[in-house]
Amino acid sequence: MANDRNEKTSTHDCAASAQPDSPMPARLSAAFRTVDCEDLRVVFARSATLARSYYRSTAAGDQLLGLGVAASARAGEQDSIASRFGALRDALTDADTLAHQDKIRLLGWSAFDPEYARDPASSWAGYARREIYLPEILLRRKDGKTSALIIGEADKLEAIWQRWEALLAAAARDHRSGRLGFTTTQSADHLWLDRDTFCYGVERVTKDHVAPKVVLARRVRLDMTQSIDLRAALQLLSESYPTCTRFAISSPENEDYPVFFGATPERLAQVKDGEVHTMALAGTAKANEGDALLNKPKELEEHQFVVDMILDSLAPYCSELTSDPTPKIKRLTNVSHLLSDISGRLKPGVGLAEVVDALHPTPAVCGTPRKLARELIAQFEGFDRGLYAGTFGWMDLEGNGEFDVALRCALAGDTQALLFAGAGITRDSDIELEWTETRAKFEPLLRALAAMVLG
Ligand SMILES: C=C(O[C@@H]1C=C(C(=O)O)C=C[C@H]1O)C(=O)O
Are strands 391-395 and 106-110 parallel, antiparallel or unpaired? Predict the structure, then answer.
């Protein structure tokens, strides 16, 4: 990445400290301090190829950045988010972190299909399929102030902070230097040649009726003439998609594609004080044709599959559950979607981890019925979705937090990126319209990477 080149030596220690799957240290301690740092994107861009980092920024402007790994719940590939959350939380309750308990945030994600038979040469090598972990440094920017929570063994806290301080200072200099560079793209390798594969999948649903709904995605590779400037890309996403959650996850072990980032309009679930808030977001039109969605039976049916599944999946966990009686329109710069808000009161003892396991993946990104749609996706698409259409987010120790759906995103390396976008296919789908829809969904990342080619 462009930003890491200049000062790799001064921040090199960070990589050594942050083993991606550090086992749980015997006793964890925490320290809290305020930090002079206005833009956590800049810190992410600097840290991304040095140690695992995780960034998110919401419409409210709050930013969260996790640097390094203090502790990660070691569990089998099959284990749920809830079991990993439980393991980590239990270990922390025993540890000497209680004074800062309310500030602790566990970060994590799940791939679209954690059980997907992985090709060892997959572009997602190095990215955990399911992960819940506690970062070594948790930076939070809220109400114009930045704070840092440092987590590690008690006698090492100061050393941990000193290692990361160099990176924060370098990021502050980046921020003061102001001007952001932009990337140009001249070639777009096999950019739109996956059309036959896509059409085959669409026809299996529209003609052979293999399932009521299957969400089929495309993957596109971009080759740049210059290094990708992550700061610039994240800034462009914030400006063009302010109502979306911007996110970035790094896996420095993956030399070709160390960063996964994007700006998603879709929340999987938010839990706060026993209430769950989620949404069905499915059914898509051009940005200026949103209102017409309310009269399109195909889009309404596709949307209803998602509402029904969310209500069915949450029912066992909720004492009350309500959804919008009719969908509304979510307008974005590139597309409009049908949106139904869904809320519920959770039964005692149920937190975000259980909700995420119950909901993911919804028919908005998978299809219906879920198991069959997943199998068909693996069969028709022929590539590993990895974290695309997966879910990522944060949780506190009480089970509050938010997970979102990783859409409108790219897996990025120095001068290359893989972009992902899909569309819900039902019996009544029209190939041309679905193709155009995926093209429109690539737009945020094409623009963020300043791509010149639009197929
Ligand atoms: C699958 C994607 O988007 C999903 C599919 C939608 C649809 O088919 O109408 C709409 C929003 C998302 O839930 C994507 O952006 O890649």
Answer: antiparallel
pTM: 0.92
182: its two tokens: 């932009």
The rounded Å distance from CA 370 to ligand 1 centre is: 15
322-346 as b/e: b if 16+ CB within 10 A: ebeeebebbbbebbbbbbbebbbeb
Is the interface score ipTM higher than 0.95? yes
Q: How far, in Å, from the CA of 423 to the mean position of ligand 1?
A: 5
Beta carbons within 8 Å of 252's beta carbon, 6+ residues apart: 15, 48, 49, 50, 51, 52, 126, 258
- Cα(252) to ligand 1 centroid in Å equals 28
Ligand 1 atom nearest the C-alpha of 388 is: 16
User: Is it true that domain 185-448 has CATH number 3.60.120.10?
Assistant: yes
Measured in angstroms, how far is the CA atom of residue 166 from the centroid of ligand 1?
Answer: 40
**Residue 304: Cβ-neighbour burial (10 angstroms; 0-12, 13-18, 19+):** middle
63-67 and 137-142 beta bridge pairing: antiparallel
Q: Where in the chain is the domain with CATH 3.60.120.10?
A: 185-448
CA distance 175 to 37: 9
The per-residue pLDDT string of the chain (455 residues; one tens digit each, 9 = 90 and over) reads: 444 333 332 333 333 333 445 555 557 888 899 998 888 998 998 888 888 899 999 998 899 999 999 988 765 666 889 988 888 887 776 556 677 888 999 999 999 998 887 777 789 999 999 999 999 999 999 999 999 999 988 889 999 999 899 888 888 887 777 645 555 555 554 455 578 899 999 999 999 999 999 999 999 888 888 888 888 899 889 999 999 999 999 999 999 999 999 999 999 999 999 999 999 999 999 999 999 999 999 999 999 999 999 999 999 999 999 999 999 999 999 999 999 999 999 999 999 999 999 999 999 999 999 999 999 999 999 889 999 999 999 999 999 999 999 999 999 998 899 999 999 999 999 999 999 999 999 999 988 886 544 33
**CA 25/CA 327 separation, integer angstroms:** 48
Nearest to 355 by CA among 384, 319, 386, 317: 317
Here the tokens at position 337 are: 């979607």
Task: Quote the CA–CA distance of 170 and 152 in Å, as a whole number.
Answer: 23
Name the residue with the closest Cα to ligand 1, atom 10. 282
Query: Which residue has the least CA distance to atom 2 on ligand 1?
Result: 422
Backbone phi, then psi, for 199, in 5-degree steps?
-65, -40
Q: Which atom of ligand 1 is nearest to the CA of 423?
A: 8
Signed CA dihedral, 416, 420, 421, 425: sign only: positive
